[in-house]
Write a structure and sequence with these properties.
The structure holds two protein chains of two kinds. By secondary structure, chain A is an alpha/beta fold. Chain A is built from twelve helices and 13 strands. Chain A has a seven-stranded parallel sheet, sandwiched between helices. In chain A, strands 7-10 form a two-stranded parallel ribbon. A two-stranded parallel ribbon of chain A has the order 8-13. Chain A is globular, with a radius of gyration of 20 Å. The chains are: A alpha/beta, B alpha/beta.
């Protein structure tokens, strides 16, 4: 679908890496008019056209006021807190629920609203016993982790909102998103010097680069597809293969010692939430072949390239001091 | 003021190289495909598999060159014929051939998935066939090597929905010999075009019938030792 020019786009979660990347890409789109963003943190990159409001997700009235004043044509809902990415699991759940209710509720009050795009994840399919190895969009949603349940909740709220106000809802089910500055518990864990992996079930998983994820949001905002879409980097890799590529020390674990490892890992700054543990034990794959047909884009960076880039990103960028630079 | 601790890169590299050295030949990234099958591992295990099975294949012209197909093979108790047929046809065609059925519990499930197993679930099978994969389905197990067991109509239904052919593949092996004979039959065509669930039920029955006919034509097991053949034939 070709949009008319000057469409107003609201980006919730614009402060995060993915949200600000989406906003930066939207600024370059000819069909996009005014862009407004709301988040608890300021944007991570320089935005030229977008306006930003710093509002906490629990301040629903303030969110409703700014959203209804803006009256968006498209809501791009990126305000999803992955557990242990920026905040702990319970806070992530509370923030995500508050944001979903506030933004989707507020958008439903806007007369001009034409489309909703929400961030979801392939965690929604779950990895219980007898779960499909590579679920497509028609597979049942049977989440087996807290994050999975969170994204299923967002999808349900968005779908209900879309049905009530009669607008299409695109749920982008993203594979674990990795990027140079994306706070990701999986990425953080893999970059540790010693990385645990499941000796008995070293299963394959896929990831997606943040650029590709952001491009999918922009395409979904333009195309307005009323369906869920998996966004998954091509190929797959296992935990041990990723460790070998990153030249980390593999720590083979079998069962009960995972509990101790999770606690230790949490102490050294790389918590292993339930959904990341699931990736290492049971893998996480999905069929992303419909993205090209529905959105007109598909991820350019393969899973293995994303993992290689993950290990190539600088941990600390050293800037010379002022005196040192002068000397 | 916080201090940045330097990552002991050299020490970690050394320890990692030492820890991964014995595993390095088995760990090329990219060897695992999007269904969890590990081509490199299969290549590494092939010499050992050849110690057990030596496949003689005919009728391979019936296999589609690029498209997907559901290959239905007979399954004598403890013969692992879906695995051996998938392995043999993958070597012959150069395409990944998957087989249906693995226990979804570690460590056997993940290990079998690396060898090409997929879940015995119609949606999983439909997904694989939809992506032009060759998938081997074993019939229900039978004690007799020349008896085709029941064909799971739910799996055949996945092929019907994916719009791919169902091909009977007779396999004849002996618990005592290395030789395994694999005969790929012509794609099964239903007598009547059905719109509903009768399509898969009837197609499953016809496939079983075709498979039985091929097995009858193949004759019995021939190990070269007659009494042994009588024992195997039951």
């Amino acid at each position: 679908m070709n949009c008319v020019r000057g469409q107003r786009v609201l980006v919730s979660g614009m402060g995060g890496e993915l949200g600000s990347l989406v906003a930066a890409m939207l600024e370059a789109e000819p069909w996009v008019g005014p862009i407004m963003g709301v988040d608890v943190d300021p944007p991570r990159r320089r935005l030229r056209r977008a306006t930003f409001h710093r509002i906490e997700p629990h301040r629903r009235d303030a969110i409703v006021d700014v959203v209804t004043d803006f009256d968006p044509h498209v809501l791009v809902h990126v305000a999803v807190w992955e557990p242990d990415a920026r905040v702990g699991t319970s806070q992530a759940r509370a923030f995500t629920d508050d944001a979903a209710i506030a933004f989707l509720g507020a958008a439903a009050e806007c007369r001009s609203l034409q489309s909703i795009v929400v961030r979801s994840g392939i965690e929604a399919y779950g990895r219980g016993r007898h779960s499909l190895t590579r679920p497509d969009e028609q597979a049942p949603l049977e989440p087996t982790s807290q994050y999975g349940r969170m994204v299923v909740g967002i999808e349900a709220t968005a779908r209900a909102t879309g049905q009530r106000v009669g607008v299409p809802v695109t749920a982008l089910r993203l594979a674990p998103v990795l990027g140079p500055h994306v706070p990701s518990p999986l990425g953080r864990l893999l970059r540790q010097p010693m990385v645990p992996f499941s000796l008995l079930g070293d299963a394959a998983f896929s990831v997606v680069h943040d650029d590709d994820a952001a491009r999918a949001f922009v395409a979904a905002a333009e195309r307005r597809v009323d369906a869920p879409v998996n966004v998954v980097g091509a190929g797959a890799i296992t935990g041990l293969q990723a460790i070998a590529r990153g030249r980390r020390i593999p720590v083979p674990l079998v069962g009960p010692e995972w509990m101790l490892t999770r606690r230790l890992s949490h102490l050294i700054g790389a918590p292993i939430p339930e959904h990341v543990l699931e990736v290492l034990h049971r893998g996480r794959l999905a069929d992303g072949s419909r993205a090209q047909a529905l959105l007109g884009v598909s991820p350019k960076v393969s899973t293995i390239e994303v993992i290689d880039r993950l290990f190539a990103w600088e941990s600390v960028v050293r800037m010379p001091g002022r005196a040192e630079a002068v000397a | 003021m916080a201090t940045v601790l330097d990552f002991p890169r050299k020490a970690i590299d050394g320890a990692s190289a030492a820890a991964l050295a014995p595993l390095r030949p088995f760990l090329p990234a990219g060897s695992v495909d999007e269904w969890g099958r590990d081509e490199h591992l299969i290549d590494a295990l092939t010499p050992f598999v050849r110690l057990r099975w030596r496949a003689i294949i005919d009728g391979e012209q019936h296999l589609p060159a690029r498209k997907g197909a559901l290959l239905v093979t007979n399954n004598r108790t403890l013969s692992f014929s879906p695995l051996s047929v998938a392995w043999s046809l993958a070597r012959l065609t150069g395409r990944p051939v998957r087989f249906i059925g693995h226990p979804d519990i570690a460590p056997l499930g993940p290990a079998m998935r690396r060898l090409g197993a997929i879940l015995q679930h119609p949606d999983e099978v439909r997904g694989a066939l939809h992506h032009d994969e060759l998938v081997v389905l074993g019939t229900s197990t039978t004690p007799h090597p020349r008896q085709a067991g029941r064909v799971d109509s739910a799996m055949v239904g996945a092929a019907v929905l994916a719009g791919v052919p169902v091909i009977p593949v007779a396999s004849m092996s002996s618990p005592f010999g290395r030789r395994i004979r694999v005969h790929v039959g012509a794609p099964v065509r239903p007598r009547t075009k059905r719109r509903g669930p009768l399509a898969e039920t009837e197609l499953a029955d016809i496939t079983q019938h075709h498979l039985q006919r091929i097995l009858d034509e193949l004759g019995g097991v021939r190990t070269g030792i007659a009494p042994l053949d009588w024992v195997v034939e039951g």
